[in-house]
Design brief:
It comes from Deinococcus hohokamensis. Its cofactor is pyridoxal 5'-phosphate. This is Diaminopropionate ammonia-lyase. One of its GO terms (molecular function) is diaminopropionate ammonia-lyase activity. This protein is of the alpha/beta class and about 375 residues long. It has 2 domains: about 5-70 and about 200-380, Rossmann fold; about 70-190, Rossmann fold (3-Layer(aba) Sandwich), CATH 3.40.50. Helices cover about 40% and strands about 15% of the residues. The strands form 2 sheets. It has a 7-stranded mixed sheet with strand order 1-10-9-8-11-3-2, with helices on both faces. Strands 6-5-4-7 form a 4-stranded parallel sheet. Strand 4, helix 5 (about 120-130) and strand 5 form a beta-alpha-beta unit. The longest helix has 17 residues, at about 70-85.
C-alpha cells in the first residue's frame, strides 16, 4: 500500500505576537498534585543529526504524575477551575484530600469527557483523586489497551459508534448540574473549560525555561507541536510567540486528520470527515477547536501533515536517544523530519530560519500507551504507567 504523501503549509506572512496572561496560581497547583516533579528535558543527538541542526531537545512526557502522557496537567487544572467557579471559593487547602472534603456537600458529581485515550484517563484520574465519578466516551476504533487504562482509574467507559468527533458530541449532551463536561476542545457556547485545559499545559513550558536556564542553554529556534484539536499547539504558540520571543512554531498532524492544515489553506475552520484511522490516535480529530483556531492561524509558521510511516520513523529515532514515545508523542519529531529531510527541505529551512547552528525542541507527549504497537514498531519493550 502506497503511504500517504507528506503535506505542508507555510504561513505567507510572519507569525504574530500572541498575548496571554496565565493564572499565577498554576505552578503552585500542579506542585500540590501527588507525585509532582518536572519531566525530563533530553538532549537528542540522533534527532539533531537527522534534522541537520546543532541541537535538539525533547521534553519527555512519558511519565507525568504517574500517567504516560502530559494531559493530566490540563485536565486537572480545568477540573479545579471549573469546580472553583461552580462551588467556590474554596477554603485554603494543602492536599487534594482537603479539597475533596469541601466538595462532599455537592455530591454526587461526575466528570464527563470524550477522548482518544490520554485526556480521558487524565480526567478519570483527577476524578479519582477528588472522590468524583467519571464517565468517559471513546470512539469505536480505540485500542483495548487504552480503554482498559481508563477503566483502571475507576471510570465508566462508553464506546460511541463513530469517530472522536461523534464522541465529543455525545459527551456534550451529558451536561447537567451533576455532570461536568471537561473537554479539551471547544464548541459554540463552550470555551471556558477548554481554555483552562490550554492554560494548564503552560507548566510544561515553564519547566522547559527553567531547565534550559539551569543548563546555560538558549531558547530553541523552532518548536514542533502535535495538533489534534489544537489545544497543545495553542499553548505552544502562546508561550513561544509571546512578546520578546522569536521562536517559530511548526504544527504536525496525521495526513488523514489534517483539520488544522486544511483550515489554514482555506482561511477558515474546515472539517476533515472521518473515519480517521492513523496510529497517531490522540491526533485523530476532524475538527479544530474554535478556541485554538485564531491563535494557530496567527502564530504558526508552518503546518505539516504526515503519514503513519513518518511517525514510526520518529519513534525509532527517539528510542535511539533514550526517549520512549508513542505514535502521537513522536508526531512533532516526525513533522520536522518530513519538512527538513524530504522534498522541499531547502524551502522549509529558509522559511523557518534554520541553519546548521540552530536548535529545535519537540514535545514527546506520551509514552508507550499501546505497548504492543510500540514493541512492533521499535523492536523494544517499554514499561507502561
Amino acid at each position: 500500500m502506497t503511504p500517504d504523501p507528506v503535506q505542508s503549509y507555510f504561513k505567507p506572512t510572519p507569525p504574530v505576537t500572541v498575548t496571554a496572561t496565565p493564572d499565577d496560581r498554576l505552578r503552585a497547583f500542579h506542585e500540590r498534585l501527588p507525585g509532582y516533579a518536572p519531566t525530563r528535558l533530553v538532549q537528542a543527538p540522533h534527532l539533531a543529526a537527522a534534522l541537520g541542526v546543532r541541537g535538539a531537545w525533547v521534553k519527555d512526557e512519558a511519565n507525568r504524575l504517574g500517567l504516560p502522557a502530559y494531559k493530566i496537567l490540563g485536565a486537572s487544572w480545568a477540573v479545579y477551575r471549573e469546580l472553583e467557579t461552580r462551588f467556590g471559593p474554596f477554603a485554603p487547602w494543602t492536599t487534594l484530600d482537603d479539597l475533596a472534603l469541601q466538595l462532599q456537600a455537592h455530591q454526587p458529581l461526575t466528570l464527563v469527557t470524550a477522548t482518544d485515550g490520554n485526556h480521558g484517563r487524565a480526567v478519570a484520574r483527577t476524578a479519582r483523586w477528588l472522590g468524583l465519578g467519571a464517565h468517559i466516551l471513546v470512539p469505536e476504533d480505540m485500542v483495548p489497551a487504552r480503554i482498559e487504562a481508563i477503566r483502571s482509574e475507576g471510570a465508566q467507559v462508553q464506546v460511541v459508534l463513530g469517530t472522536y468527533d461523534d464522541a465529543v458530541a455525545a459527551a456534550a449532551r451529558q451536561a447537567d448540574h451533576q455532570h461536568l463536561v471537561i473537554s479539551d476542545t471547544a464548541w459554540d457556547g463552550y470555551t471556558r473549560v477548554p481554555g483552562w485545559v490550554v492554560e494548564g499545559y503552560g507548566t510544561i513550558f515553564q519547566e522547559i525555561d527553567r531547565q534550559l536556564a539551569a543548563l546555560g542553554a538558549r531558547q530553541p529556534d523552532v518548536v514542533a507541536a502535535q495538533m489534534g484539536v489544537g489545544s497543545l499547539a495553542m499553548a505552544v504558540v502562546q508561550h513561544y510567540r509571546a512578546s520578546g520571543r522569536e521562536t517559530r512554531v511548526v504544527g504536525a498532524e496525521p495526513t488523514r486528520a489534517a483539520c488544522v492544515l486544511r483550515s489554514l489553506e482555506a482561511g477558515a475552520l474546515t472539517e476533515v470527515p472521518g473515519p480517521h484511522t492513523s496510529i497517531m490516535a490522540g491526533l485523530n480529530c476532524g475538527n479544530t477547536s474554535p478556541l485554538a483556531w485564531p491563535t494557530l492561524q496567527g502564530g504558526l509558521s508552518a503546518a505539516v501533515a504526515i503519514p503513519d510511516e513518518q511517525a514510526e520513523a520518529a519513534m525509532r529515532l527517539l528510542a535511539r536517544d533514550g526517549v520512549v514515545s508513542g505514535a502521537s508523542g513522536a508526531a512533532g519529531a516526525g513533522g520536522l523530519l518530513a519538512l527538513l529531510t524530504g522534498e522541499g527541505a531547502e524551502r522549509a529551512r529558509q522559511t523557518l530560519g534554520l541553519t546548521p547552528e540552530s536548535t529545535v525542541l519537540v514535545i514527546s507527549t506520551e509514552g508507550a500507551t499501546d505497548p504492543a504497537a510500540y514493541a512492533r514498531i521499535t523492536g523494544q519493550q517499554a514499561d507502561r504507567a
